[in-house]
Amino acid sequence: MSTLFTDLDASPVGIETCETRLALSASLMGAWLAPLADPLTDPWAEASPTCPAELHLPLEIPIQTGLHTDTAGSLDQAFAQAALNFDPSGNGSSLLEQAARVAAATGLDGAGQTIAVIDSGIAYDHHAFGENGRSGGFGPGYRVVGGWDFAENDADPYDDAPAGYHGSHVAGLTGGLTETIDGNTFRGVAPGADLVALRVFNDAGAGNLSWIEQSLRWVYDNQDSFEFPITTVNLSLGTELTDLNREYAYSLLEDELQLLYESDILVFAAAGNGQLNLSPGADDLMYPASSPWVSAVGSVDTNGNLSGFSQRADGMFVAEGQRLQSSVPEHIQGYDGYLNDYSSLSGTSMASPQVAAASALVRQAMQQAGLEATSESILQRLQDTSVQRVDPATGISYQSLDLEAAVDFGHLADPGEGENSTPSPSVPTPMPTIDRYEGSTDGDRLQIDLRAIVNGGDVLLSDNPLDPDSSTYRLIGSQSGDPIVIDAGSGSDTLQIFGSTGNEQLTLRPTTGANAGSSLLTFAGGTLELRGFENVTFIGEGGEDRATLYDSDGNDELRSGPDRAQLTGIGFEFHLEQVDKLYVYATAGGNDTAHLTDSIHDDQLVIRPQFSSLRGGDHFQAAFGFERVFAYAENGGHDRADLGDSAADDVMSISSTRSLISGSGYRASALGFESVQATASQGGDDTVRIYVDDPNGQWHTTESLTQWTGADGTSRIARGFERSEAFENFETVPVGSQALSQAPIATQAWRSITDIQRETDEHLRSLQQLFEELAE
Question: Residue ranges of the Peptidase S8/S53 domain (predicted)?
Answer without folding.
Answer: 110-387
